[in-house]
Amino acid sequence: MDDFPKNLQIKLDSRTKDYSMRRLGTSTQLIDFSSNDYLGFSTSEEIYSRALQILKENALQYNGASGSRLLTGNHKVFTMAENYLANVNNADAALIFNSGFDANLGLLSSVPQRGDLILYDEFCHASIRDGIRMSNAKALKFEHNNLEHLTTIAERERASHNEIYVVTESVFSMDGDTPHLKAMTALCTRFKLRLIVDEAHALGVVGTGKGLIYEQGLEKHIFARVFTFGKALGCHGAAILGSHTLIEYLVNFSRSFIYTTALPPHAVASILAAYEQLSSAEGIKRVKALKNNIEMFRSSVGNNQLSERFLTSDSAIHSCIIPTNEVVKAVSEKLKTKGYDVRPILSPTVPMGQERLRICVHSYNTEAQINSLCNILKDELNEIAL
């Protein structure tokens, strides 16, 4: 069929007109300031070899899982990895999902019920928002990292709902900032709210690499933590950490867990191997190098008089605000010609006027690369006189 629905074509044409059309690219040999591979684990030969060793030791040399985990796909490496995750992260239990998107979708679509309320940070990830939309619970957003606004809503709504769930991220994927989790935990305790925290961009980055909740000693106060392994762990999949009862509930009611083929055993073995590496001397060395590079980047931003353009961040994610899709894409292309892979984030992914370069710092970036990038960025911004 050659024709295409007119209303869909109009939407595509609109994306072209406002410079927001998404297209699939290819990997590059440019200097990486774009990927989420914060520790360089995705290319670790040690992790690769250890994953193969785990598979051989457990006679799990399969190409696929062969079915959902409730049918034929629940190979013993899942239990090994989930027990390890729960133990190392000071949680009662863990459940592995195929991706972070699947984890958030499955958790938020199945747990909050009719008569419940979900309060979520307005900057939460698309997977969180989609899971909320699929829920039968009512949902209200609160202003980004604004505890006063969250308190106002909680005071107003507490008596009208059976359960209230608060959803946030420990490091936000577009801004790189963090909520005041201790104060938020105290607030949830006061109003008997159930706190859910997505740790996707804190895992392997914050503190000893185990996430912000663990670092602040808040594990026992959190209803659920979501970890994804495609960022600093350099592999694939995700896990929800919580009580044994929560995990049992998800196995029975989370549709994105139940009705999908399980991850192949080698993907789960990679998760286990990456976690082991994170706690090793090499992993500790890489986490320390990442922290040093983050501080070095922040200093270079200041030295190049770029601070006013950057959102405040102590994480590996640093956003340089460059309004309009057209201009931020042009700056990104200029950086590519100089050898640097820095991707633009366009509206509507971020609000109009908040378009940005999203710069990700890694353990393997060098001081020369960091300083050169900031110098080039300064020159480019001066040239376009923003």
TrEMBL record:
Cited InterPro entries: Aminotrans_II_pyridoxalP_BS, Aminotransferase_I/II_large, AON_synthase_class-II, PyrdxlP-dep_Trfase, PyrdxlP-dep_Trfase_major, PyrdxlP-dep_Trfase_small
Pfam families on file: Aminotran_1_2 (PF00155)
GO molecular function: pyridoxal phosphate binding; transferase activity
Domain Aminotransferase class I/classII large: 29-376
Claim: Transferase is one of the keywords in the record: yes
Single GO BP term: biotin biosynthetic process
Record-stated family: Belongs to the class-II pyridoxal-phosphate-dependent aminotransferase family. BioF subfamily.
Name the UniProt record assigns to this protein: 8-amino-7-oxononanoate synthase
